[in-house]
Amino acid sequence: MNIRKITYSISLILIVGLIVVLSSCGRLSELMPEPTDPNDITIGVIVSLTGKDAAPYGLPMKRGFILARDEINAMTDLNITFILEDDKSSEEGAIKAVENLVERNVPAIVGIAISDYLEDAFPIAQENGIVAFSSVSSAAGLSSIGDYVFRAGLATNIMIPSGVMLTKGALGYTKAATIYDSEDTYSISSNEEVVKALTASGVEILTQETIKTGDTDFDMQLGSIMSMQPDALFISALSDEMTELIIQAGKKGITETTQLIVPDLTNTEVQAAGDAAEGAIAFTNWFSESDAPGNKMFVQNYMTEYGIEAEPWAAQSYATLYILANAISNATDNSSSAIRDALAQTKDFQTILGNFSFDPNGEALYNPVVLIAKDGVLVVPDITEVSVPEVSDAAEDTDAAGDSTPEDTQ
Description:
Helix 3 (54-75) runs parallel beside helix 13 (312-330) and helix 6 packs across helix 7 (185-200). The strands form 4 sheets. Strands 2-1-3-4-5 form a 5-stranded parallel beta sheet, sandwiched between helices. By secondary structure, the chain is an alpha/beta fold. It is built from 16 helices and 15 strands.
């Protein structure tokens, strides 16, 4: 018998046996991985699917992300898939969601609306070298978390000074009052920037009243404000408290003599507050009638897909995924560090928010929008004779803001 044939037969038997054993142990795929398409990439998405933040923030964000993903996958070489996590409208839920995605080894995470949650959860992504890109959070100073953290929403220290300059010039208010949620970081940050901007504009601040998250009775604070007769009242709060403050201000008659100015007011709160919101002014990031490239198509496609009008938080999330996809396409590979480096280089990228850039701290730069509630919807006010300052001017203080630490956190 031929010895070489015997040796070959024995070797073949051993190889086949090894394959059977490894397959049964589930190790064959580890030793012989199938080649992967470099255009395939899995992204973590964290939104509030349950709890108090789901309806006003989380669900619109989810819709915006999904619409953008489906368009990007259809129009480009990328094939983006999502791992969706529910932050359950809590800091603890956000932390757990980031931890879950770290375990899944995703290169990037998008989402998280509320700055309180971001402040606690994004440091985990930073420590693990994972890109963390919030589409909504806007409290000033959170860029200090680290170089893997980015935001698409205009930080309060960028948006509010522009809004105050515009409305002060157009409306001429000289006395103002503020009311804010002292337990929410976004609201604290918003009020701080309002006070700074009013002071710089020479407006007298009569009082700074506070509420707490979950409060429903604001009679005492609003009564105090009404007795002082301010020309303008600035409200800084999240959706539920914001809506109730507007309603109760209307019932007290404050809105008949005082201009309500509410940063981040959306049609959701305007319609919930009804007549009390008529004439309220918003400082915001996006407007459905904007002529920014692709915006009209986004509004149309959103209505077609979901049967409702697009919300600002959906628009910001939609733009966020396009910005991230552009960075992924430009990155040297799909690693977190490469995506981070490409994302940081984003400059004058056309989005439905306008020409979008990041400052050196990962904060968004584009032109803010001032709107007014009229007949139940937000529209462009007739105060266009006063120009909104360019965001590049307002962003000069961003480095200093990035070194600050908020007390609490949209």
